[in-house]
């Protein structure tokens, strides 16, 4: 701050200085501005961003002489105007390596991301009262090479280097909510010197929300232009020319419509190869698209996020490694997504051991991190059999809501369904019989089967595993409703679980369907009467998937799709309860 109480700032990677315009409007004085391209600095000079020519510093920020010029200007302001300390450093290091906007990435992306390190170094040297880093949405989780040649996440490097002296706050915002004329989602990292921790909150840095503007409000007063025309009163208002054949692509488009939606082949974006039309690929949804004149640019708003971070490390069937299993920490990635999108509600589903694993460490960590984001958490172990699913499947559900505490008592219980109710109408198949698509051969025999067959004219995925002759001989030795106990000990195999080689019981609910239901030696996975494991469709029925839900892929993939899923009827009950909460 200067003798006259004027606030000062330094801008790094400043481009043409457009981002500094607001600071100048608020009365800040620019001590130094750094940009590698001289032509961009010249635009800043024309707009009189700085009072002194020495404050315009052109050069690579990685070079010591560039940093020295910046530090020299700080010293000049200190001696000349009594600047006790730079109030603010703003840095916007190049983001191409982090952005999803460019489809063709270059090999030096991570090197460019490492310019963040140069920003951090200067912040540590300058010691401003505040700093702001601005970049794309994925900024905090992007890889970056530190001074020791380690590849780390940018967020981790910022915290390691600056959290000792600064309170750090990172937020993903859309600038259109703060008065900007276009939708622009960016990550802001705000650092506040800890000496101000009792006086200033990072939230005070944000202005009030403003009404979003329509395209008409922004550009409606500009002169309409013809092909190639310039506005004589505004050099920057011009109709850029482009290849004439592209006019056909866009001339008949309605508001919000893309040229890729045209029905005529020659009106779709294309190129000519050997006298033939080769259609372009639509990589960005907004390419060749006519803007909506009377609407605000659409931004996707997400009400709810549902996720089930991999559960093998928590499961009783695995080694239950707890803190030693890196898969268990994928819930941190889930929390980062919740933090970025800010849904009204989120759901985490996992095996029930997530509640108790590592002496409750994971549950407490989830609660602490999400409570800090403003969510109220509720959790409970639900059994799918209580919600109309013919399966004993216990899973932990954690529900977080921003406006209320979710009450699991709102879930409506359903009548129990057994295996016979679920699959008795499906064709009896022997090993290696069946087809991807087939007709129904038997009539509906239960209300559950009627529900599953609704809107499904054909039967899909009803194909039996091709068991080995040795497996078939074992299966023939096992009585109905029994399993491994029927086999001689020399045929028990390596599996130690008592439930292996077991037949399902027509009159009971099924045990938990997992991803290896096609293998009799993996559990109670065999048909109640036949010498084979259950088919993917039978497993899907037991999971409560409707018959019109079709699974694609090889056998292993299909088994994982079915076995890893949350039963749809349980999801339906939970969804209805959440809707009740929202409508309150």
From TrEMBL:
Pfam families reported in the protein's UniProt record: DNA_methylase
InterPro entries documented for this protein: C5-Methyltransferase (IPR050390), C5_DNA_meth_AS (IPR018117), C5_MeTfrase (IPR001525), C5_meth_CS (IPR031303), SAM-dependent_MTases_sf (IPR029063)
NCBIfam families xref list: dcm
Protein name stated in the entry: Cytosine-specific methyltransferase
Source organism per UniProt: Helicobacter pylori R038b
Family label: Belongs to the class I-like SAM-binding methyltransferase superfamily. C5-methyltransferase family.
Lineage: Bacteria, Pseudomonadati, Campylobacterota, Epsilonproteobacteria, Campylobacterales
The organism's place on the tree of life at top rank: Bacteria
Any GO BP annotation: methylation
Keyword field: Methyltransferase, Restriction system, S-adenosyl-L-methionine, Transferase
